[in-house]
Amino acid sequence: REIDVLWTLKPGAPAEGSAAQPLVCSKFVIAVGHNAAAFLSSFILDSVCWEVVGVVKLWNEWCRTSNTTNVLPTDSFCLFYRLISDPTVLLCQCSCYVAEDQQFQWLEKVFGCMQKEGLQVTILSTCPVADYKTQESTLTLPSPFLKALKTKEFKEHICCPLLEQPNIVRDLPAAVLSYCQVWQIPAVLYQCYTDVIKLDTVTIEAFKPLLSCKILKSLVKDVSESTKILKKLLTTSETHNSIYI
């Protein structure tokens, strides 16, 4: 159950494990789950402005990834992108499940390649609205909705209300936020609570308020193109999820 991080930052064959020199990274945006990854694909990522610089290979009881970069919305994958005009900006789309016993490896092998000084991390993820703890009925909540958690060092404006106690976050988003807290890295987690588990337009667009955040504002592409890409992603997903008898 080893995790391999393959970087392609230099010409030639991919370098397995960590890069020879720590990556200078000012912004690192991590989208965990299919809907969060689709949000980045629709509103941020552009093949002209971004290049794939790394992949994660892993397998567990829920998924198996490969080192391919030609992925479908329904695939399990973990890809890293770098902004061509500013190589210090990195994005990660992680639609695969990272098991509990693999999360420490993921953190060590990904963040171990980065220079932590001057780094700021933003995490996007989704969670079932049934997991949200509140005194009122979840049936009356305007799902989907965003909540945020941040590290002590994160001082910038937050684009949605903070997550109230006794709610908790789990899995890879929680592991990344905890890692950043320990290493004193400014980080914020935006979690979307939704009642839809598959790729869904409403859930994806629930992340749109984040486009006004300082860390994402400068990365937003043409909104009209974003709508077309979003429709294409959902159409592709529906095609590959169809069952024929």
UniProtKB/TrEMBL annotation:
TM annotation in the entry: none
Keyword NADP: no
Pfam family, one: PAC1
Keyword field contains Chaperone: yes
Gene Ontology MF terms: proteasome binding
Biological process, per Gene Ontology: proteasome core complex assembly
Entry GO CC: endoplasmic reticulum
Keywords: Chaperone
Highest taxon above the source species: Eukaryota
Protein family (similarity comment): Belongs to the PSMG1 family.
Protein's name according to its UniProt entry: Proteasome assembly chaperone 1
Source organism (scientific name): Eurystomus gularis
Gene coding for it: Psmg1
